[in-house]
Amino acid sequence: MRFPTYRARRLRESTALRRLVQETRLAPSEFILPLFVVPGHDIRQEISSMPGQYHLSVDQTVEEAKSVVDHGIPAVLLFGLPEVKDPLGQEAYSPTGAVQQAVRALKQAVPTLIVITDVCLCEYTDHGHCGVVQGEHIVNDLTLELLQRTALSHVEAGADMVAPSDMMDGRVGAIRAFLDDKGYHTTPIMAYASKYASSFYGPFREAVQSAPQFGDRRSYQMDPANAREAVRETQLDIEEGADIVMVKPALPYLDVIARVRQITDLPLAAYNVSGEYAMIKAAARLGWLDEERAMLEALTSIKRAGADIIITYFAKDAVRLLAGGGV
Ligand code: PBG
């Protein structure tokens, strides 16, 4: 069927028609909002590189979580900052760490909210790497034990799901076995299966002061040039017991999302990271982009590529826009 018999524009004439034939729809139920928990009380301090995102003390995390629930967003992903950083990231697995306290408070105050915790050491280590450092090396197998302890401390506090983001080999299996052994066989793992060594984590690292003090993360995070390797990493995490697999970042890796979609029927999450958020915010501030349209377009593209779940700092803004009928 060729023009003039077929006219593609026929179905684009009105808002109602366009809605009727829309292939990809966003819904609040597929968003996860990341939150940054800090020690202290009554703290709600905006993160300069991430306008609209805050450092929150435990009490303020609870307030924010109530608003998240009111928006119809089902889950938060907690990151924490310690009082002090040290070479082994000890506050990551302390029962009194900011994240562990926040988990307890959230499960008490907003029990319907799914509380997911990021399991990693880089926010807690003084060298800023995601594992144990010996000389210039990040030592894989020694790190696994610390990750197991971190995950267990979150689950003991009441976390509904853990999300290891460190990219050590074997960590999903190690955490699964450890949790099972302690009786937590029903707690799911969302694995950062293909996490790339990306410049788009810049604003996040400023927010949690986790930039590596020497070297970079390329000996454990993936090379942005590799897509087949993402398939392999995903298959490994599935074999080790991942319940949800993730691609991170999202926008520069839409092809990877689409590719991973093809090889698994597990739920697939994509992380719309801090740099993707900051780019749109910054361009909008300069008047170079329409923030609302750019946000919804970006999120729609992530869904269209094949993600079931989108982890995004835009979650609340997007829900408000969708409720108003979009842009
Ligand atoms: C920790 C971690 C990072 C992010 C999530 N978990 C940073 C990193 O790997 O350096 C980035 C999130 C974002 O940029 O929004 N390993």
What this model shows, in words?
The protein has 327 residues and is α/β, with parallel strands linked by helices. It has a single domain, classed as Aldolase class I (TIM Barrel), CATH 3.20.20. The protein contains eleven helices and twelve strands. The strands form two sheets. Strands 1, 2, 3, 4, 5, 8, 9, 10, 11 and 12 form a ten-stranded mixed sheet that branches. Strands 6-7 form a two-stranded antiparallel ribbon. Strand 4, helix 3 and strand 5 form a beta-alpha-beta unit. Helix 2 crosses helix 3, helix 3 packs parallel to helix 4 and helix 7 packs across helix 8. The two termini are 32 Å apart. The structure holds ligand PBG.
The biggest sheet amounts to:
10 strands, mixed
Task: State the shape.
Answer: globular
Number of helices: 11
Mean pLDDT figure: 97
CATH class: Alpha Beta
Could you give the count of β-strands? Answer: 12
Indicate the proportion of strand residues: 15-25%
How many domains? The number is 1
Rg calculated over all Cα atoms: 20 Å
**If classified by CATH, what would the architecture be?**
Alpha-Beta Barrel
Heteromolecules bound: ligand PBG
CATH topology type: TIM Barrel
- Note poorly predicted spans: none
Distance between the termini: 32 Å
- In percent, how helical is the residue content? 25-40%
Can you say what the CATH homologous superfamily is?
A: Aldolase class I
- Structural category is alpha/beta
